[in-house]
């Protein structure tokens, strides 16, 4: 016997009973299924995963060796959309939009003339915006470095 369930009320329950060769699926979307086959590999597959799938999952198994209980915490990482623009007042704007977790933004050359804002979205993603003022500088270019668990991106802007 193998049972997967998400730890919340009325969430998905997926089970397989080998003595009856019986599978059950209760409150599960089509995206949630067995990775291959519950007979050979009772791993859970969620594809495509989305933010709503985040949470704690439990796998219960029972066989000749005994009963086993596993807890798995699923955290969804969302790659931010990264842009580098500038405005008329000679401020470079590096934006890492709708990432989870929030991306880190840094500049080359490093400057004390930069500032940052953060916007939290209802779905749990974060937009970070960093501003680099080059109005009184002689730099030929500026580079925005965005660091995130899903990606690292480097964007270059010519300032001449």
TrEMBL record:
Membrane topology type, per the record? Answer: Single-pass membrane protein
Is Transmembrane tagged as a keyword? yes
Could you give a GO molecular-function term held by this entry?
signaling receptor activity
Which residues does the UniProt record annotate as the domain Ig-like? 1-75
| Cited InterPro entries | CD200R (IPR040012), CD80_C2-set (IPR013162), Ig-like_dom (IPR007110), Ig-like_dom_sf (IPR036179), Ig-like_fold (IPR013783), Ig_V-set (IPR013106)
Q: Which SUPFAM superfamilies match?
A: Immunoglobulin
Annotated localization: Membrane
Organism's domain of life?
Eukaryota
- Give the principal location in a single coarse category: membrane
Q: State if Glycoprotein is listed as a keyword.
A: yes
Q: Name one GO biological process term.
A: regulation of neuroinflammatory response
Print the keywords alphabetically.
Answer: Disulfide bond, Glycoprotein, Membrane, Receptor, Transmembrane, Transmembrane helix
Q: Which Pfam families match?
A: C2-set_2 (PF08205), V-set (PF07686)
Kindly state one GO CC term assigned in the UniProt record.
external side of plasma membrane
Q: What is stated as this protein's family in its record? A: Belongs to the CD200R family.
Name of the featured protein: MOR1A protein
């Amino acid at each position: 016997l193998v049972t997967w369930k998400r730890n919340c009320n009325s969430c998905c329950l997926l089970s397989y009973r080998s003595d009856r060769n019986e599978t059950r699926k209760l409150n599960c979307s089509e995206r949630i299924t067995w990775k291959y086959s519950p007979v050979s590999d009772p791993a859970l597959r969620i594809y495509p995963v989305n933010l709503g799938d985040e949470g704690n999952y439990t796998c219960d198994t029972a066989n000749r060796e005994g009963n086993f209980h596993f807890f798995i915490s699923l955290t969804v990482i969302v790659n931010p959309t990264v842009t580098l623009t500038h405005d008329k007042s000679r401020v470079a704007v590096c934006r890492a939009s709708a990432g989870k977790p929030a991306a880190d933004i840094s500049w080359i050359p490093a400057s004390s003339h930069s500032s940052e804002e953060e916007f939290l979205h209802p779905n749990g993603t974060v937009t970070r915006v960093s501003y680099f003022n080059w109005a009184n500088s002689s730099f030929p270019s500026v580079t925005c470095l965005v660091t995130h668990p899903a990606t690292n991106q480097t964007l270059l802007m010519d300032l001449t």
